[in-house]
Amino acid sequence: MIDSSPHATKLLLTPPEAAKALAVSPRKLWQLTADKKIPSLKLGRLVRYPLADLTAWIDSQKSGGQQR
């Protein structure tokens, strides 16, 4: 069952929500989306950003690696 309470975690973010969550401008988000560098989902004419995919994308973008 999906939790419809006001504090439920959203699974799909709108472009403004995704830009804010990633701390980038909406223009930069659109550039990343158009270049297919960031995960997105098209629902008809709507573009949404799956929260789990954005989290995985952030992890894949980390640099530095582990110290030995």
Descriptive notes:
This protein is of the alpha+beta class and 68 residues long. The chain has a domain at 12-54. It has helices spanning 15-22, 26-34, 51-61, and strands at 12-13, 41-43, 46-50. Strand 2 (41-43) and strand 3 form a beta hairpin. It is globular and about 40 Å long.
Lateral strand order in the biggest sheet: 1-3-2
Helical amount:
40-55%
Rounded to an integer, what's the Rg over CA atoms?
A: 14 Å
- The mean pLDDT is 88
Poorly predicted runs are none
Proportion of strand residues = 5-15%
State the order of secondary-structure elements, H for helix, E for strand.
EHHEEH
Task: Please report the distance between the alpha carbons of the first and last residues.
Answer: 45 Å
Structural class of the helix and strand makeup? alpha+beta
Oligomer status: single chain
**How many runs of DSSP E, i.e. beta strands?**
3
Separate helix tally: 3
Shape descriptor: globular
